[in-house]
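Tutorial sheet, problem 5. The three components below are modelled jointly, 1164 residues in total.
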Amino acid sequence: MSANNLLEHYKAQRLALAQKPTNADWLTSFTENLAQRVEAYGLPTRQNEAWKYTRLDALAKHEWPAARKQAIAALPSSVAESHKVALVNGMLDEAHSTIADLPTGVTICPLTQHPQCETIKEKVITHYTHNQPKFFKACSLFEIEHSLVISVDANTVCERPLHLHNLLHADETASSHPNVIILLGENAAATVVESFHANEQQHFTNQVVTIAVEKNADLTYIKCANIASQTHCVTSHEVMVARDARFNAHSLTQGAGLVRFEWNVALNEPNAFASINGLFRGLGKGQLDNPILIKHKAANTQSVVNYRGILDDSSIGVFNGKVKVYPDAQNICAQMQNNNLLLSERAEIDTKPVLEIYADDVKCSHGTTVGELDEDALFFLMSRGIDYDTARAMLVDAFAHSIYDTLFDSTIRQWLENDYAN
Amino acid sequence: MLTIKDLHVSVDNKAILKGINLTIKAGEVHAIMGPNGSGKSTLSKVLAGRDGYTITRGTIEFMGQDLTELEPCDRAHAGLFLAFQYPVEIPGVSNVQFLKAAVNAVRKAKGEEEISSVDFLKLVREKMALVDMDQDLIYRSLNDGFSGGEKKRNETLQMLMLEPTLAILDETDSGLDIDALQSVAKGVNSLRSQDRSFLMITHYQRLLNHIEPDFIHVLARGEIIKSGDKSLAQELEAKGYGWLLQEQADECE
Amino acid sequence: MTKRSEKVETADPIEEFLAQDYEHGFVTDIETDALPPGLSEEVVRFISAKKNEPEFLLEWRLKAYRHWLTLEEPKWAHVNYPKIDFNAISYYSAPKSKTDGPKSLDEVDPELLKTYEKLGIPLREQKRLAGVVAVDVVFDSVSIATTFRETLKEAGVIFCSFAEAVQDYPELVEAHLGSVVSYRDNFYAALNAAVFSDGSFCYIPEGVRCPMELSTYFRINAANTGQFERTLIIAEPGSYVSYLEGCTAPMRDENQLHAAVVELIAKEKAEIKYSTVQNWYPGDKDGKGGIYNFVTKRGDCRGDHSKISWTQIETGSAVTWKYPSVILRGDHSVGEFYSVALTNNYQQADTGTKMIHMGKHTKSTIISKGISAGHSQNAYRGLVRVAAKADNARNFTQCDSLLVGSKCGAHTFPYLEARNKTAKLEHEATTSKIGEDQLFYLAQRGISADDAVSLIVNGFCKEVLNELPMEFAVEAQKLLGINLEGSVG
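Model answer (structure tokens):
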């Protein structure tokens, strides 16, 4: 790392947080440990396998001071009929949220105000003790105390989707570290949509989302970021899935900045299921990074990962997926697929679907393809009078559509197609 | 040919068969019927020597030998054939390669010469025609992607090729359409002879219309609760298994 | 090991040598002319002087050695082994009678010839493979004899030991050595460049189709000896050669290091087919002993329309770390990689390939089959890279894993990097197992467990086995069966 890498300043600034006295012992020891991790690992380099294809140049240009509390005028458009939650610069903005009428058993509030605060803390701390975070994750987890918790009690079904707006709003260069915890109790079910939005400044969001899906619960989580070139977003999703539970994620990223959506899913108990459908579209000098790790820790667990990448201009797409089957986790079914379209001479895709298997009764498969638009199809459309740009857009949309098709909720699809994508 | 005496079998320490007595003589066709979970498939697996089935009491004698002493492949060499309820798929191993290996293994055990490729192919074609099997199927991977009917025809083809002394048909008819059932029956009937016996395990009476048994046994709760001739099948078809179970319960009191 | 050897009655040497678990565990008791363990600039100079090498080669070795000193042992592969003490290895071991070099086979130490007979290597021209395969034999570090040299010479083909090539064709060696695998390439390539003692050299002139298969047998004999052979094959425009490589080593408790380098150069419209059956001693059932096989193999499709094809059957070695690669530099060039890697007991393999597409309209195919049994770990690692100017590159990759037993691991690490939008890359991978259900089904049809495993394994590998020359295919098929015996049941 060069001396003028301003991320070193960012690191120092985050470490300073660990020095601040806290009024809670758990927090003191938690942050001390994080500080040690940050020191020990330092900034990731491309020698590190997980960052092999990621260029941090865009981040290295600024110091990223923390964004202050700021009022916003209005929320961007939301999914129809959803409960809206506004998180501005990492803080819950109740004025723009519609959480007064949440169904019984559904709670959305900061961690410290949550009725089950102690239990949640316990769960989260245990998780990060066993899954030691590295640089970015640790830098974000310093804000654990200010986490926003979305919890759905056991046997509760939240009918309407929850739409979490994750906004970074500042008049100058700034960073935000929104920590989110999503908990679904036994037999609970919910759909959460989370979308990023930033105003036109140099912005960097470094987020950790911790998710626990308890026995037989069902969580659908749609995560999307459509960002401009000056916005960067590094998010880690840490997901624990219990017996018979289902976790369906949709990871949708688009833009010209650095977006890294990491998914780290542990199928901890028998018959747990996880799917992640992802779509990444790179524009300009965008860098769309998709590290995925699915851990099959118990027998009869199943996972499906399906990503499509569309890379235009000089953008770079990375798919770095790994399925790991632990010893004695028998009767596993895992599929991983990544198909990519390169649209420009300068675009690049690096894809690496890894299988690491230590049990014998497994049925795993993975596949990847890289290609360009089908010339014949393009020619056909144009021969029917459709101009080149329209024809190209049609074919690209068709390629992307198979990911949208995995979304069953039509109101969410409508919102994605009409509001998010544009 | 086959003599089963007081056979008790358990799986994971759970008793499944509780004292089976059955004698099959050369040339006879026996059918074992019974409700689901009665132990029918366990019996077929024990006879073929599947691991995980513990014989806790009793004996099985086949062609004068103690069957329980033999490895599964030695039982096959001795002339015992099991048509599987769920034939196993083996990707990468072609059907023809497999059949030839099996035929030669059995011939070798009998001290016979290996079959020549020309004779082998001729024989396979002939037998495939007999069970109305698509000729292309022998070049595909073993059972890989076969339909239910194709798999059962393939089981019958293997039986025709190996010409066993005792063939056990484990639910060969389950889930079959009428065409496939007729093909399978045609194959079986072509093999019927004075010195060859069959043990058919089935849930339905339908199969017995196509392959006529000499004896029918009803297996329930791990025991043969009734034996009779083929008229028993019609009675079962009409009344179900309930009356038999009831009858047995009465006897117990 | 009883059943199989009973079946073998004929004295066919290949049959015999395949008839056991690891029959090659005999040690030939002949005087060796070996250096004491240790590595220094003096050792490098000694080796070079011993071989009477020209100045350019000594300089090159020294540069490599100095570069090696700056490097650290690579750690990224999915393998674990104790740290190697490079000073405990002897870097030169030649059978003593070789000091002056035999002029013909008759001068070769008869002990050695017996060794090869035990190995089933048809060194004597009247043997079974006579007239089919020309053989060069590398024993520990030196090449012993090359058969059929005369016949080959008529066709203009040069096939000799590397040391002889250095003496007889220094200009060819100087022009091509290190042009595919630089001494700077990696840790073991640097080590090899510094201390390599012999290997094979092969030159096919323009327009010549090599009249027979060329073959090298490698054997490590002396204890504590590293084997660092170097193979260089140059195919001039329009030529064709098929080259086979077989490897064995005796059983020893301690691990032995093998760090070879193979460089292939295919010029315009030339084709090189390189096949390996690697059966180094894998260590015993508890993972003791065995060869560390850290090899750099690379082919350069330098000319347009050239083709390089690697086929490997890897069944031996305690630890294998090997990625035969192709640089597709010429337009319309073709690279192929067909591999079966089998690991049993405590073996570890991290193997695969790199296909670097640089020319236009280049095409590569990767078929990799990994079989893991026992407590072994088997990893496929492959890179397909399409450079920005490589228009219309095509790659198809299929890598499948088969697991036998529940204590082993099978891993797949494919890397695809595309910087050209006209690239079409496809990668498919599956993992499956040999299950009890499958074995029972085959047993019920009269097929024994060992035969059933062979049947399934050979079915699983057939796309790769089909790529081997006939004699090797049979050998390979048997090797796979033998190495898996007793792993199921």
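Marking note: The two ends of chain C are 15 Å apart (CA to CA). Full credit if you identified this.
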